[in-house]
């Protein structure tokens, strides 16, 4: 995969210096009506370990997303379907789960069809669900679909389970047949998630993607920086150091990685790993609407002394 660097857009001010926002936000969400309908039951589920963030449940629209992009000078957004929530084991199973999944993906693709100049649609599935491969096949050949979004935590995937790893690899293979970019929230619910899971992913799952671009969301975590995220990303850095071929089609997004809660120590540790892997292997993302105001988010999260202005410019301009 060649790295295409586009023009930087939207000048932001950070610490008295001019910083450019990204031309593309690689990680955004707009819930479909079908998903908004099931969110109350999902969020109330006793199987969830924490309450839903109010920003997650807010009935925001694509117009809200486009307005936020306009104000931040962002030309295009990668719009991730949240259809996978219909089949999440974190809530009671639904007899209409497949129908909700399809409606949610239809909605996201429909938005990209109406605004192909601004939005790129990523359909989503639970990779271990019985209907995952059929849903991917349903969209084969549709030019309005850019990629596939997978969320291992919400889908209850255990990378250490050989059967589940095999199913995930099959989904990667199907996405590659469709010539889709794959965006994967790879962190699982395992308390000791880290290098062991990265090893399974690199050995058993990533090869199924072939030359398809793969983006690991949240720098291999789930937002923020903690010990297991750093352990996982360090394992990727070690693997790329041993065999750079792993990195030919592999990128990481920085959506919600640097937040107001990030300590100086964690920020430095993350910056060191970004340098080890190479800033050109990282892309900008916000996880909107979790980010709030996009202009403010990029001004506060993307910049600072841990990486040089040149390194930040590479990240902000990078596209898989």
UniProtKB/TrEMBL annotation:
Q: Gene3D superfamilies from the xrefs?
A: Metal-dependent hydrolases
One GO cellular component, as annotated? cytoplasm
Q: Where is the signal peptide?
A: 1-20
Q: What molecular functions are annotated in GO for this chain?
A: carboxy-lyase activity; hydrolase activity
Q: Which residues form the Amidohydrolase-related domain?
A: 101-302
Q: Which GO terms describe its biological process?
A: secondary metabolic process
Q: Transmembrane stretches, by residue range?
A: none
Against InterPro entries, the record matches this protein to: ACMSD, Amidohydro-rel, Metal_Hydrolase
> Which keywords accompany this UniProt record?
Hydrolase, Lyase, Signal
What is the designated name of this protein? Amidohydrolase
The organism encoding this protein is Caulobacter segnis
